[in-house]
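ok trying again, last paste got cut off:
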Amino acid sequence: MTGLEPGSVVITRQAVDACFKPELEQMVLGKRVVRSTDLDQQLVQELMQCSTELGEFTTVVGNTMCTMDFYEGQGRLDGALCSYTEKDKQAYLQAAYAAGIRNIEMESSVFAAMCSACGLRAAVVCVALLNRLEGDQISSAHEVLVEYQERPQRLVGYFIKKRLGKA
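nice, full thing came through this time. structure:
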């Protein structure tokens, strides 16, 4: 995502909305309900330690911005609808970077809010496929993308094995 080399793994400190707030707003029976999207900081630290032990790829801790759509919600210029300029996009992505956002996707806020509401410890681990400060299109070869998408799985797999005493 923002400011990272493709293939970098992001362990999410907080899942935030498109206004950079750590909350999920949803409508329940016609009423606005706001839920916290806090994730387990001990898990964040343990996952980062596991990545250091693996030493296979760049890993950072940062916020993940969860948007409602892939195009305008993520500041892309290549969708069917686009109501802003490249300059507007860059200003928004720079503000996101300043707010600690290192990843953009569309699922983490719901996951974090539901886990938090149920009292479950949770973490979000993603991989950056491109640096959004440099463009909207993925240019890496298919084989490279396949390897990138395996990185979060390898990290979480190592974490699980370590927890089970098998690493």
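cool. Residues 6 and 130 are 5 Å apart (CA to CA). The longest helix spans residues 142-163.
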